[in-house]
Amino acid sequence: MTEPSTSAAPHLRRLLDLLADDAPAEVLGAVSSRARADGVPPGDLAEVERATATALRIRGALRQHRRRELQLTALFDTAGDLAASRDLDAVLKAIVRRARMLLGTDTAYLTLPDEEAGDTYMRVTDGSVSVVFQRLRLELGHGLGGLVAQTARPYATPDYRTDDRFHHTPNINAGVLDEGLVAILGVPLLLGSSRGGTGKVIGVLFAADRAARVFSPDEVALLCSLAAHAAIAIDTARALADTRSALDELAVTNAELAEANAAVREHSAAMRRAEESHDRLTDLVLRGREVKDVAAAVAGLLDSPLTIHDPAGRPLAAVRPDGTDFTPDAMDAGWLAETAEESRTGARAVHRDGRWICAVLAGRELLAGLVLHRDGRLDDSDRRLYERAAVVTGLLLLLRRTVAETENRVRGELITDLLTGADRDPEGLAERGRRLGVDLDRPHMLLVAEVAEGGARERLAPAAVRYLFGGDVHGVSAEHAGSVVLLTAADATAAGDAARAAAERLGQLAQTPVTVAAAGPAGGVRELVRAHQEATRCLNAMRVLGRTGEGACVEELGFLGVVLGNAQDVDGFVAATLGPLLEYDARRGTQLVRTLGAYFGSGGSLVRAKDELHVHVNTVVQRLDRVQALLGPDWNEPGRALELQLALRLHLLTGGRKR
After folding, report:
1. What is the arithmetic mean of pLDDT over 569-598?
2. Fewest CB within 10 A of the end CB: N or C in the chain?
3. pLDDT band at 195, cuts 50/70/90?
4. pTM attached to this predicted model
5. Which one, of 53, 5, 45, lies nearest residue 417 by Cα?
6. Which helix (H) or strand (E) holds 397?
7. CA-based end-to-end distance of the chain
8. Separation between Cα atoms, residue 317 and residue 326, nearest integer Å
């Protein structure tokens, strides 16, 4: 029997069909309008509207994921060009062109130093229309590129013309103005010297727009990866030029010619091995393999055990040359960070304590550390291979992070809906969670995290994603009501211990103190909502008690925590205890409540109280006389004083809301 047109089912099926066909957003949005026109009942119409909103979010996530795939494919194509081409001009043009495509900018360009002239010049441009700009020569240390070259760090500006961080000169300003550039991002082409381990900037890669724009950390990381490829191409071209120059200078004698031929064959064999190795590693990433597979390939190529550690020192992979796993010794996080920083600064692998360490970077962020367990030296070709492996590992970790962020964003919407509308459809939320791989009926630990006032709040949400997808803890996170909520699988860990572990790790990842309150284990939609309320009260209490950067649960906060955790009538208690003072202050604009708090906080000292309040001591005495008149003569007796101090603390904790 055919369903009537007023049913929601045909419209829901229509949404699925449109989503499968990647229909435009406006077509998806029109489904709810069609349902309304067909006379679908209000209850079913609301379901169609919710399904339409969900379909639009899924479409956005899928399109973003496809965009990421296209960017990474273009990046890997650049690596293929580098391995297949001997023409430096062709490779650099491809890199600049793909930089413009990857970041979607109006132009991209690359500058190299002219050691004879003592300045830098435009080597390659793409999307440029100004002859003045294309012929621009820059004095060393001037402009955004000069700052990048001096510091060996990426720099970006949303509006170059008004940015006073850079040394502006008339010729640079004229070229930028003639090209019409506004937003500019520049990253260094870093190359380590053969001795000393100090990094050398051999050029700068730029992406620029003709309108104001803020470049994201992911865009900076992608441009840094392209700059690494460009540095490899230039270094390879120079190595070939040095080889040709050496051959030209050799005397043409039989012995010397044989020696030169042997050197050329050895160098060519090393280059072929490096190219084949780079292709093999890149292919692993393109095939969606794991970090362990890259580690196994590098360990086999270099015939030495290899471990990959996260920034905290925890092993991500540990493989012998034969491909078997092993358990590495504990890696001190401080030692690894210090050695990785030396590798990052020098843009080379470094040898320490019988191991070779190479930093895996995304811009300036340390993603991981490669540790090759070999006491002997690495020849130039093996060292280049090892350093290229770090670049490929960085691409793989960035890809994993992108996928994790996309998945967490979709699942995080479930947490947001759970905390804002659990009473509307708890069964629907539970079923939706199961479809997303989050069983809300199983026991979970619920954590609420925040940074201190003035801290870098924008770092907390990305840090939570890395915390959940980069270690032993797994779950889902979402931003809610100014904080970040994390839902993790419950294990034998107590709530307080889980909060402290999360506070420490999130603080490391966000590079700012993070306060975490935990509640649970809790299972089921309503229990999870109650756990969130308890954790939020605990977080408020920690904020008032000055426990910033710590982790705790309600039970660990003593009597105050028990009062909050059991959801007593806090407002009623405060109103009954401080009501006359609160009403008097509200009616006459006085500060009796604040004066009483300062008096108790100073241990009953009138002098210290007047200093805190910045008033004369007689004013404090007059206010306390008014307190006695309103509360009675026993207000300062021990039992009554304890009640008043508790009520003052609760009043401060609840933000002094109206009663």
Report:
1. 85
2. N
3. very low
4. 0.43
5. 53
6. helix 380-421
7. 59
8. 9
Task: Please give the single-letter amino acid code of residue 364.
Answer: R
Residues of the chain above pLDDT 70, percent: 81
Q: Mean pLDDT, to the nearest integer, of 165-172?
A: 88
Asked if 549 and 515 count as a contact pair (C-beta separation under 8 A), the reply is yes
Between 296 and 197, residue with greater pLDDT: 296
pLDDT digits (tens, 9 = 90+) for 111-156: 998 888 888 899 999 999 999 999 998 887 788 988 888 888 899 9
The pLDDT of 622-634, averaged and rounded, is 91
CA gap 540, 222 in Å, rounded: 40
Which 3 state secondary structure label does DSSP give 492?
A: coil
592: phi then psi, degrees, rounded to nearest 5: -70, -40
Half-sphere exposure of 295 (CA within 13 A, CB side): 26
Residue of 464 and 556 predicted with greater confidence: 464
Torsion over CA: 368, 373, 375, 380 (sign):
negative
Ramachandran region of residue 143, left (φ > 0), alpha (ψ -120 to 50) or beta? left
How confident is the model over 92-114, as a mean pLDDT?
89
Q: Where are the beta strands (DSSP E) in 344-462?
A: 350-352, 355-362, 365-372, 444-451
**What are residue 484's DSSP bridge partners?**
449, 479
- Half-sphere exposure (Cβ direction) of 502: Cα atoms closer than 13 Å: 35
Q: What is the pLDDT of residues 324-353, one digit of tens each?
A: 888 776 667 677 778 877 887 777 888 888
Say yes or no to pLDDT of 109 above 90: yes
Which string of DSSP letters, residue by residue, matches 53-96? HHHHHHHHHHHHHHHHHHHHHHHHHHHHHHHH---HHHHHHHHH
Q: Are 138 and 113 in contact (CB under 8 A)?
A: no
388, with CB counted inside 10 A (0-12, 13-18, 19+), is buried
**DSSP helix/strand/coil, 174:** helix
pLDDT of residue 205: 93
Counting residues of the chain whose pLDDT is more than 90, the rounded percentage is 18
Report which residue type is found at 138: L
d(C-alpha 645, C-alpha 602), whole Å: 12
Rounded to an integer, what distance in angstroms lies between the CA atom of residue 11 and that of residue 440? 28
**CA-only gyration radius of the chain, Å:** 32
- 449 pLDDT exceeds 90? yes
- 327 with 318: CB under 8 angstroms? yes
Structure tokens at 577: 């205890």
Whole-number average pLDDT of the chain: 80
DSSP codes, 128-151: ---HHHHT-EEETT-HHHHHHHHH
- Which residue in this structure is represented by tokens 């500006």? 157
Q: Can you tell me the mean pLDDT for 245-264?
A: 58
Strand partners, 557: none
The pair of structure tokens assigned to 303 is: 């015939």
Own/partner pairs for 416-421, CB < 8 Å, 24+ apart? Answer: 416/478, 416/479, 416/480, 418/525, 418/528, 418/529, 419/480, 419/481, 419/485, 419/529, 419/532, 420/480
290 Cβ neighbours under 8 A, 6+ residues apart: 317
Q: Which residues make Cβ contacts (< 8 Å) with residue 554, sequence separation at least 6? A: 517, 519, 534, 535, 537, 538, 541, 561, 562, 564, 565
Q: Beta strand 514-522 with 551-553: parallel, antiparallel or unpaired?
A: parallel
Look up tokens 């977080």; give the residue: 539
